[in-house]
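Two quick folds needed for the group meeting slides. Do the first one here.
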Amino acid sequence: MVRSHLTLIAGTERIEQVIDLARRAGDIIGEGLEPQTDWKADGSPVTIYDRKAHQLIVAGLKEIDPSIPIVSEESGVPPMSERAAWTRFWLVDPLDGTREFVEKLPDYTVNIALVDNGVPALGVVYAPAREVMYYATRLGGAFRIANTAAPVRLSSRPPAPGTPLRILESRAHRSPDLDAFAARLPVAERIAVGSSLKFCWVAEGRADVYPRFTPIMEWDVAAGDAVFRWSSGTSTPHYSPLTYNNADMRIPGFVLGFMPPAPAVVWFTGLPGAGKTTIARLVGERLRRLGSQIELLDGDEIRAIFPNTGFSREDRDAHIRRVGDTASRLERHGVTSLVSLVSPYRESRDFARRLCRQFIEVYVSTPLDECERRDPKGLYGRARAGQVGQLTGVADPYEPPASPELTIDTRTMTPEAAADLVIQYLTRGQTAPATAQ
């Protein structure tokens, strides 16, 4: 009965064959009551059961379709020159969670995925010790089989804004970044679990979000990512920030379970030396982890694009209008622009606001004496010596925003905390002005 159901939902017997391979690999792993552990060059553990499962899976996949290349954790990464032309390939982690397996914890899995044009179109995750199988196909959706029960279709939804979150975390890879991420969100529970089960638990609604801030390999995530993507219960998959066939097959980090914030123009304004660009760069790093496309328009770098711009009021007005137009065009193409400019005049900032769909003015309100004390580029010192003319705050006025979306005083807030505040605004849809002083 299960076989006929699988054939019906997948439109092919391939998923049945892969499920069978995963079960057989799980049986081999289950023989390892006292596994002997070796260590790879990168410090990760490996057992003979990793290698036995690898051999079985690779041989089985070659029987299914010998024309499709295979990348397994136990076979290493082929050179990019070989992989560049691949449109489809198998990604295999024969024993994900070797540490849990050695410690006799039930959280290890067998992972098999088929990547098709950059998307995990098929994925199987089998947890032998838990006797649970997750699988998904692009056309058929995602399912869970517990023990010998009939398959149950998975259908999950992203968490509503403001909802206390159940956050999944790795048993072995906690990090300060993860703690900081959790600290800025409403948290109902933090759940530690090993292997690709984290993807599957988000897919079945057992948890809300899986943040990962340490590097991970593509074979660790592809099968679970397939289960998550195709668990939407509709023809439109869940959003996933993960990409495949990267140069070293390494993924630096991600947050799964959130939609990335809508494209916006985030305009950081304040005196020279206030800390605008430092905060903007940190915001960019966090947004990339959420899957956003980012462009940083920094004051120094943008003047290289418009090299003939002067520093009179008229020149500065024209410059801000050009940058505002550029940022608004990027926004319309799905890119969040992080604009870091002194932009001293209220009227020109308001002009830029009117061009944009979502304009978020961040006033970095660090006062003049503090900016001059820091003077990271030596601008204030040279201005006081008469070597720099028309420096804002010294020879040219700065007009603070009348009602910015966010106000940040870097005397009392670290750049990291300021970036967190901006991310919170973008991801939680705040509508009232916020102040951090």
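Then this one, please, same format:
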Amino acid sequence: MLSPRPFDNANSPILVALSGGLDSSVLLHVLAHSPLRENGLRAIHVHHGLHPDADAWAAHCEAFCVALDVPLTVVRVDVDRASGLGLEGAARDSRHAAFKSELRDGEILALAHHRDDQAETFLLRALRGSGPEGLGAMRPWRAFGRGWLWRPLLAQPREALHEYATAHGLNWIEDPSNADERFDRNFLRNSVMPLLRGRWPHADASFARSAELSAETADAFAHIDDATLDSLLGDDHLPCDVVRAMPADARARLLRRWIARIGLPPLPADGVRRIGSELLPAAEDRVPHYDWSGARIVQWRGRLHAVRQNDEWPVDWQCAWDGSSPLPLPDGSTLALEGAPRFDATVRVRARVGGERIVLPGRTHSHALKHVLQERGLPPWERARLPLLFTADGTLLAAGTDILAAVFADWLDRHNARLRRSLA
């Protein structure tokens, strides 16, 4: 009989990701008959809307949860088919976003990945040329959203799950897309792995064991790389001269660890190579960059900066604002006036278009905003998303929250107020 693997937060409530397939049905059934249920147990089903039977699958999950007396939340998502991740990757991103939005503080998200899944993931990562971190594949336990992610069945072969489901009379959904070998994982599962098992019966276990050993190696290196990062950083930048002097393997590990720590998507192998060949050797008066998956690394003034690429602001964007409530900006951040109920008069907020001038505190004449931003060392990518505040007659009051015109700085001081920007 299956039993869930132990975990550190044994008193935390559990949220089970329930697709209605064999694996997640077994996981929910096991936990529903486990002492862990006493800590709180509920389920979530993500309705992707990609299959004509999606409504029926949600209804199946609802009936299954009623039979187990487990509360179920059904979340409908819109899968971004134009994301560039492919349909499978875009659906996974939408699903994980739904999990994070529903996960409560300290709650544990339980996923039903098993040993066969781990073997497939190891092979997929190997085919992409991954190092130890990537080959470590899926971890049984990690931080996730406001809580934790747990894979209690990761050591179990799929055959064991099937035997459990049969023995307990469980019914489950068979997703026909699992037979579509246009998807890499399905091709491995349906064509490659049976061939390998025919020659090496324990292939799944061997690949899963290699993933475990790779994870141990990656964790050991991570401790070393964390210590190096702690000695070098600013969280968002690394000194080029130090990184350039590192051995290539140590540099690659450090870059990947840095990106993981910031929370950006994993850095591809091509990214590591191009950073070493194009960004690190570049002269300081150039601003070369490398882009991937909505993220960017920029070499600027002898440092590598990691940037999340939010959508560019529309060139004609502007908005009237009285300061009484936070102002949403086009990149997802917000601008707020704190300490005062509102401005004396409504201001106009827009992005830079060029040619702006500002009278700084202690000065009697205006300066070109372009020169002020350069002197303050504001990176070019931040200048493009800097909210500017103007009076009705076009006088520049502020560029962001720190560059203030004399008249506006005086007004804030008199009201014991300030501007604050909350990033997306």
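Slide caption for protein two: The chain has three domains: 14-208, 233-308, 318-422.
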